[in-house]
Amino acid sequence: MPQISSAAAAAAPLTPQDRDRAAAATPRLIAGAVELLKALASTARLSIVLELGRQERCVHELVDITGMTQPLVSQHLRVLRGAGVVTARRRGRETAYSLTDDHLAHIAADAVRHAEETTR
Length: 120
Prior knowledge:
Helix content: 55-70%
Shape: globular
Oligomer: single chain
Radius of gyration: 15 Å
Number of helices: 7
Largest sheet: 3 strands, antiparallel
Low-confidence stretches: 1-9
Distance between the termini: 19 Å
């Protein structure tokens, strides 16, 4: 699994406004958050998201970094694209993948940090 930098793992505390916004979330927004968490609920997909949080990558680069096969990486990228987690961009003959926004990198890094804290 790729290592995350301490800067990426250090999350800013929630502001009172963020807490109020989360507490007032509509059922539709909560359902959207659940779908996002389902998309991340895989060791392979979370590893891919952590890597894409560092920089844009092509499939072959993700294969080399994660040790997964190309079809498996492609399958997980398809799930992540369907959930709106990653976007694809042509880079010459290759397709480069990146996260749709920085929030996703923070969510993944916070999940890893939380796991570290609970396993101590």
